[in-house]
Design goal:
This protein is an alpha/beta fold. The protein has a single domain, classed as Purple Acid Phosphatase, chain A, domain 2. Helices cover about 25% and strands about 25% of the residues. It is built from six helices and 13 strands. Strands 1, 2, 3, 4, 11, 12 and 13 form a seven-stranded mixed beta sheet that branches. It has a six-stranded mixed beta sheet with strand order 5-6-7-8-10-9, covered by helices on one side. The longest helix is centred in the first third of the chain and has 19 residues. It is globular. The mean pLDDT is about 95. The structure holds fe (ii) ion (FE2). The site of fe (ii) ion (FE2) has 6 residues, from loops.
Length: about 270
């Protein structure tokens, strides 16, 4: 289905893992853009630099591939450059509910190429995650603020627990256009539209090597589980795939009309 005039289409791409992930994105995203023609592209970049964190180079690669905005998560600060990057470029978001005084912003209203404004919010969960401020209250407050500027509001909820992500979806049902989770790197098959019009999926998945363990080299991961040693992780390089979620929404109301998962696989010659 091609989105009509009054419909606005958002593409959200799951965590891009290291160089293999950036390659998958570079080679596969153009096909999705061509086929699906989204108006706005949001990509989670928190694993884009070497599998851990984001830097100027990896952010540029994601913007060059077609991203309008980048979201992040618990790995935001793994590369020290990120502390400057989030202040240099407002299109690079970090989770909103970090301690006061943290550099950068957790949300922003951006203009799509067609002129339509889109609010993007990035929050981080607290269940099985490092301590953070309350994502429920902080997230809702920022969505309420952005709603004054546009009804099209997208949320990347970066969290481990599906219960927390689902609860947040209900918490902002009818306020956000879409709530999509990240962090587990495994796409979930629960895409749906909640009662009051918020599109929801617990996890978008990842963009990277499926021959690994959540995008990291499987031998290293296995050795870590078998020995308990702090073995260094490298991004997996085999079976490159791109996981994404497409959301259609009514431009006037911000209510979602459709949500669907997209997965593309890079066929090696
Ligand atoms: Fe994460």
């Amino acid at each position: 289905m091609v989105a009509g005039n009054e419909s606005f289409r958002i593409l959200f791409v799951g965590d891009v893992v290291g160089r293999p992930g950036r390659r998958a994105l570079r080679e596969l995203l153009p096909h999705i853009l061509e086929e699906e023609r989204p108006h706005f592209v949001i990509i989670n970049s928190e694993n884009s630099a070497g599998g851990f964190g984001v830097n100027r180079r990896s952010a540029k690669a994601l913007f060059d591939a077609g991203a309008d905005v980048l979201t992040n998560g618990n790995h935001t600060w793994d590369k020290v450059e990120a502390f400057e990057l989030v202040d240099e470029d407002p299109r690079v978001l970090r989770p909103e509910n970090l301690p006061p005084g943290t550099p950068g912003c957790g949300c922003g209203v951006f203009e799509a190429k067609c002129g339509t404004r889109v609010g993007v919010l990035n929050v981080i969960g607290r269940v099985f995650m490092n301590p953070a401020e309350d994502p429920f209250r902080a997230g809702r407050r920022m969505l309420d603020d952005m709603r004054a500027e546009t009804p099209l509001l997208f949320v990347d909820f970066h969290g481990e627990a599906t219960s927390e992500k689902q609860a947040f979806g209900w918490h902002v049902d009818g306020l956000a256009t879409a709530v999509v989770g990240t962090h587990t790197h495994v796409p979930t098959a629960d895409s749906r539209i909640l009662k009051n019009g918020t599109a929801y999926q617990s996890d978008a998945g990842m963009t990277g090597g499926y021959e690994g363990v959540i995008g990291m080299d499987r031998d290293a991961s296995l050795r870590r589980f078998l020995t308990g040693y702090p073995i260094r992780f490298e991004p997996a390089t085999g079976d490159l795939r791109l996981d994404a979620v497409l959301i259609d929404a009514d431009k006037q109301t911000g209510r979602a009309t459709a949500i669907r998962r997209v997965q593309k696989r890079l066929l090696e010659g």
